[in-house]
Amino acid sequence: MFGQEKILFDSPFLLCISIGFLLFSMAVSEIPVGSKLSVVENNHWVSSNGDFAIGFFNRLDQYRVGIRFNSNSIPIGQQTAVWVAGADLMVGNKSSFQLTQNGELVLFDSAKGVIAWTSNTANSSVASAVLCDNGNLVLLNGKKDIVWQSFDNPSDTLLPGQNLSVHQMLRAASRNSVSSYYSLYIDVSGQLELRWESSVTYWTSRSLSQSILRATLSSEGSFHLLDQRSKSVWSVFGEDHNDSNVKFRFLRLDVDGNLRLYSWIEDSRSWRSVWQAVGNQCKVFATCGLCGICVFNASGSPVCKCPFTSTTESNSKCLVPYRQGCKSGSSMITYEHTFLYGIYPPNETITQTSLEQCKSLCQE
Predict the structure, then answer these.
(1) Domains of the chain by start residue, with CATH
(2) What is the pTM (predicted TM-score) of this model?
(3) What span, in angstroms and rounded, lies between the C-alpha atoms of 96 and 114?
(4) Region at 228 (left for phi over 0; alpha for psi -120 to 50; beta for the rest)
(5) Where does this polypeptide localize (predicted)?
(6) Tens digits of per-residue pLDDT, 243-293?
């Protein structure tokens, strides 16, 4: 149970292939130095149980390399990525990913002709790599000690058995190849926080202990903050917690800024969110962008609307009103109890007054 596990393995390599799973009698095939993946060959490295694979995948005619679910029970269209090399890095259609002879994972971008990302393990005596049955990609030295692992370098997702320490973070995937503003941290006071950029905290775990070392996701569907004694001091549980029929789970910071726990539902053959940090999506800071408004439609689902649009903009981009040269006497649109995150007064003087006087000032 949580907080009571003991490491009973002499080798981290054995721990890698067994944590959270029963030990398999079959040997895990190691990936030797010199091994290479490429967009052109469309090849993959697969875990021994077949549940995970690493390779290139396409997005908007650009490519990323990462680890995804690979189980036969999950349709290809649902085999979501759980780790991406370099987070949001996109590369060209002739790119490659290689475990070099000097023991370094290297992502080469054919579009720019440069090395886009490396594991920085060139001087660490790496002898081979293994994609473990729990989805962790590890680099091993000749003694089978773990030199580097993807679990220590998360992108936007945690898998069961994976930790998030005080010095790590999850960053949401980008929209339209623009870096995301959303991230998940454990701050120095031991709070788990969702942040927009680095200054706005819009959700916190409100844990009581200040000796938090890490956050971790269990295979049973619970998410914990653990102290120095590996004792759970804060936890949340998915709706299907302890459901033995659920084989696959993951925790992800989604592109909309919300943190969600997902379970694979075999009956519907789909991923289902069984917990989310922010219950009201409209309370996620800037969920509709800097100038959008988050509202609920007739079915109760949150949707984004633009208060200021331009007919010259084909995508109806939300615009800041005073940049369009509002003239004296212009009419105003009223939005009750609404705050627009990216709109600030056009000057440094703010007069505290009544609503009607404020309207008059804005129209002068």
Answers:
(1) 8-153 (2.90.10.10), 158-286 (2.90.10.10), 288-364 (no CATH)
(2) 0.82
(3) 11
(4) alpha
(5) Cell membrane
(6) 999 999 999 999 999 999 999 999 999 999 999 999 999 899 888 877 788
